């Protein structure tokens, strides 16, 4: 009794590069950019934050901002490369 794999489920490299996979990754990327941008903006304009941020907080928000920038560049390269549309 070997398990049957659906012929519609293509997990090959060629299948992963398909149009639908690229659009799903791009949509997930946009959601991530939005969520982390909101986190940074809420913290930046919060009245309850301390006047001086600790070293770990600076590193954390630096990493979040750098991740947002890299995600925007990655999404732009997907669009410029013609992978999406």
Topology:
Layout: H1 13-16, H2 19-44, H3 55-80
Helix pairs in contact: 2-3
Q: What percent of residues adopt helix (DSSP H or I)?
A: 55-70%
Helix count, per DSSP?
Answer: 3
What string, H for helix and E for strand, traces the elements in order?
Answer: HHH
Radius of gyration: 19 Å
Shape: elongated
Rounded to the nearest angstrom, the distance between the terminal CA atoms is 42 Å
Uncertain spans: none
Oligomer: single chain
Using DSSP, what is the number of strands?
0
> Into which percentage range does the β-strand content fall?
under 5%
Mean pLDDT: 78
Structural class: mainly alpha
Reported for the largest beta sheet, the result is: none
Describe the structure.
The chain is mainly alpha-helical. Helices cover 66% and strands 0% of the residues. It has helices at residues 13-16, 19-44, 55-80. Helix 2 (19-44) runs antiparallel to helix 3. The protein is elongated, with a radius of gyration of 19 Å.
């Amino acid at each position: 009794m070997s398990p049957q794999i659906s012929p519609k489920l293509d997990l090959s490299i060629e299948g992963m590069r398909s149009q639908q996979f690229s659009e799903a990754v791009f949509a997930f990327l946009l959601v991530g950019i939005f969520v982390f941008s909101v986190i940074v903006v809420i913290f930046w304009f919060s009245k309850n934050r301390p006047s001086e941020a600790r070293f770990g907080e600076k590193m954390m928000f630096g990493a979040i901002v750098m991740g947002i920038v890299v995600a925007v560049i990655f999404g732009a390269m997907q669009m410029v490369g013609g992978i999406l549309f």
